Amino acid sequence: MKRALSTLAERIYRTLLRLYPRRFRDEFEDDLVRAYRDRVAEDRHRGPLGRLRLLIYLAADFLTSLVAVHAHDPTATSFAHGPGSRATLADSVPLDLRHALRSYRRDPVFALPAFLTLAVGMGAATAMFSIADGITFQALPYAEPDRLVVAGPGRERPGLTSPADFREWRERASTITVAAALPQQSTLRGDDGVIEVSGVAISPDFFEVLGVERGIGRAFLGADHAADAPPTALLGHGLWTRRFGADPSVLGRPLELNGRLFTVVGVLPSDFVPPEALTLEGAQVWYPLAHSGTDLTARTYSLRVLGRLSEGVSVQAPHEELQAIQSALQAERSMPDVNVTVAPLHEVTVAAITTPMRILLAAVGLLVLMTLGNVANLVLLRSARRAREASVRSALGASRGRQIRRALTEGLLLSSLSGVAAVLVAVVAVGVVQRVDPGGIPRLAEVGVDARALGFAALLSFAVGLLLGLIPVARRTGTPVLLDRGTADRTGSSRRLSATRTVLVAGQVALAANLLIGAGLLVNSFVRLNNTDLGFEAEDAAWLELSLPTYRRVPLDERTRLYESVLLRLGEIDAVDVAGGGDDLPFAPDRRETWASREGLTLDDGENPPRAGLHRVTPGFFEALGTSLLGGRAFTATDRADSEPVAIVNGTFARAQWPGQSPLGRRLRLGHPTEDTPWMTVVGVVDDVREAAPSAPVQSEVYIPWMQAPTLGMSIVVRGGADPGTLLPALRRAVREVDPALPVDRAGTLADHVAAHNVEPRFYMLLLTSFAGVALVLVAVGVYGTMAYAVQGQRHALGVRLALGATRTRVLVAVLRQGAVIMALGLAVGCGVALLGGRILEAHVFEITPTDPPTLFVMTAFLAMIGLAASWFPARRAASTEVVDALRVE
Amino acid sequence: MPRSVPDRSASSSASDAVLSPVALHTLLALAAGPSHGYAIAQEVEDTTNHRVRMGPGTLYGAIHRLAGQGLIAETETPDDDSAHASRRRYYRLTPAGAAALRREVARLERVVDLAGARLGL
Prior knowledge:
The complex is a heterodimer of chains A (890) and B (121). Chain A is an alpha+beta fold and 890 residues long.
């Protein structure tokens, strides 16, 4: 493989040598190739980076010497500027540029599509480069990030470390300095009640290890980490500006955090990004572990450990050292040994790349392929058209060097103009991706079209320009200069579309068919997703999430009373019809499932009872959610801890467990039938709610009264006739009136809650649809360009036909047929690939298969129509050719 | 510093032309004795700290040009025992080449003198 590649590279180099003047080539070809081989064999040109360096080096050498050698070639005569005068490079560049501009102005049928196609294709590639580069190659924004690692127990990825182990690591390790972080949801009291913020408890040296500059105020000192020190905190820059109006007098002021008073001693720098690899994204308040309420001698795994390698140390030494320390600890405690993993921070960060990124890459890949095919096709067409011009020029004595320079100037001019447009396209594209951020793309917010991306765009347009300039030259090399090439064009077989061009355009049609079918499937399934019966009414309802901070240690019965009065108070608001709460809303990320055994259930050995989702809900919850009761009753205020245990099941569970019978009055218990959990009487049946996700199938669900097993937090749904969004401030106020120290974590409308869970399918749909849109344009441009050129080339022949009595309709049909053949070829291949490769989308379509026949049909027909429309205009022009004009042409 | 564009139309006589950096260093490399192409390139890149890059095209472009101007000439392959040496072509400095090199160095000396006077070095 490697050898084949290097042989191929040498072959390409040999081919390029044909661009030198013949005399020079004859004399030095072997020497040049030998020098090339010597260069390839050099040590500094090994490895991927070395190869890249070599490539740039050789390209620069080739281009400069090509011009220089041609300028000195005594065999070349240059009549282009009149006999006897040989223009210097400095003279000829503006001249070539002017010539190039003029040639494009004269040939807009080529220039415009090529420009647009290149701008879009290179723009997409640049945007993708920015994102990929920002995520994977850009250094993390900390001092000497190469020395940062994450450490923890685990075989492949470092996991959480216990405070006890961390303390030992910190004391004993010499090849690495470790620090720990513990993300905690924290409550912050302000003048207007309490808010939830992301807090982080950190060990001593955390910011020193991370390598973050001090912002405003001071950093934590060693003394701040002592258990008996007055509690101190640092604010994130975002929280400081949003919450405290960037007021520097916050420093030294007390702040009630998690029910304790902290003194704010500093604000972190505005450009500080909490490391995502430690799950600290969005962290806003930082305080010492000593004041986090965490038991620092505990052996439970809770801390994220960050490490900075000592100077000149690789990952290996700290790994061995920490492993040795941990093994000794485990032995001391007579516990089984534990594997310790040390991984570079960068690697852990990048490991979070997931499906959206991959789909993005695949779609961009298809698009860039299409672009290249499109432009290559246009250039081939153009060079075929200009073969005559070229032969005339060389017959008149234009030197090869001169012609190459002209072609290169033309190519580079076009590619650099498109390159500038491509950067604009990239800026817009990156912005759009950030706007619809589907999650799963780490460090997305840090991404931008920066200097490196500009460099990439410049290199890309340079390479494309070379290609554009050299394709026509290389094709012409070696063919004898024939003045009658032009007449061949008029009479010979070259007026038919060449096989290469047909394949290029058909290939584009095939690629576009895939993008289009993919987009069609996603749009189709998204529509179904939005129309699906969720089992509840998303409109006209709001929700809020409350949670009692653990530090308040509210006893169970008081908890019940508190939430009951909150629900009561919410229900009193004028606009509110009904309020109900539960331990979770539909689509909660952590679905709780349990075994649910009906009375009389018998199980074979090793068989498990049926599973069902378990939810605790208050009276009024189903009414507020808009879930209809199919039978029996809802929970009431009398279903309490001391009353008879009752349950409500959903339709799916009822049908599965008591087929054909009423479940009302039956009994079930959570767990195995033989377990000693209490029997619960089924008092009601509710409609199926899609609890897991809008696109997930309905499952068995069991609901029990919240009052019989109250939780720390509660998700409340409020149904009111008015616009639910305007209700939110009143709801927050009502909660504060009941208990000012009860934080509202999050709140919103139920409709938004549903939409938020459709973000990912929406992202795929938007992405593929926009790419399919671009692909459509490219196909239209490709087909149009090909047909327009073909028709132009055939004008003479068409004129003859018309003169000989062919009807205009026949000419029209003949041209359309050429377009139809290309489309049919492309569509056949495209559909085939879509049928075979549709499985990629399997996980992302809802209620339809990836080979859904109607979608396939509609999309194919649509594309075929676009293709035919694109060939219609050239065909009509061909049919309206005036015989005289056509015969007079050229 | 404005870069002087050598007047290439007059350079076929090669008498008073300012030598390009590549030509100057190629001649300098050959001043030490006959050498083959790749060795010249390496010598030039080493002595100029890779400031002057001599890829295959630049190298043989320069050899082609200098040979055409009579400043260097192909020479017999020395009795080298390495097997591949026989396939390499060796070049030597011609008397005209040596003279051109001396002229160029003298010119550069004048430049250095002038610069010294103006800049007070």
